[in-house]
Write a structure and sequence with these properties.
The protein is an all-beta fold. It contains no helices and 14 strands. Strands 1, 2, 3, 4, 5, 6, 7, 8, 9, 10, 11, 12, 13 and 14 form a 14-stranded antiparallel β-sheet that branches. The protein is elongated, with a radius of gyration of 18 Å.
Length: 192
Amino acid sequence: MPQLKPPAPGESFDLDVTAKGTQIKLGEHTYTVEVTGDLRFEISKAPGKDPAEAVRAAVPRFYLTGTPNSARGTAAQALPGRITLDKKDTEVNPNNLISLTSGFPPKLEQVMHLDLDVTIENPPQQAQVRAAQGEPLVLTTKNPANLVGQLTQFPPNGAAYRLQNPIDLVLPDDPDTTIATIQKFPVKVGGL
């Protein structure tokens, strides 16, 4: 069996990504969305770490889009517009790492901390107090989304990443008021 180790510094990977069953709560309603897209990992040396044990995995691109497939709530209604999740153009989080966690059986752990912009086209009526009628509702993450994947190979081939915390979404000019929350974000990367 070949030895599993983190990818080498200087490598980059463009991979498909999907999150079927993403749940976003907006007001009293929870919408289930299937989003698909792509991401890019750029590998570099992690300061103070042996590259055979851990590397930094920058995520300069993380883009998902899709339309809702159902709604649940006190007065269920369909969300008529497209939802887009796009990585903000911010500095690379130094804690985005791929680490060897076990030699036998060989396993890697990948941690991604992502600041996202979320756009909801044609937001429902209750959200239109935050967006002008007919305008998209543009939100941003209050705190980074934290995703963790347990990998048996790299690049991942359909690997599941767990959301470590609900993702509160706020208006860019009002970071103290949560407008929506992504409650479930079942991300799968590669081989899709």
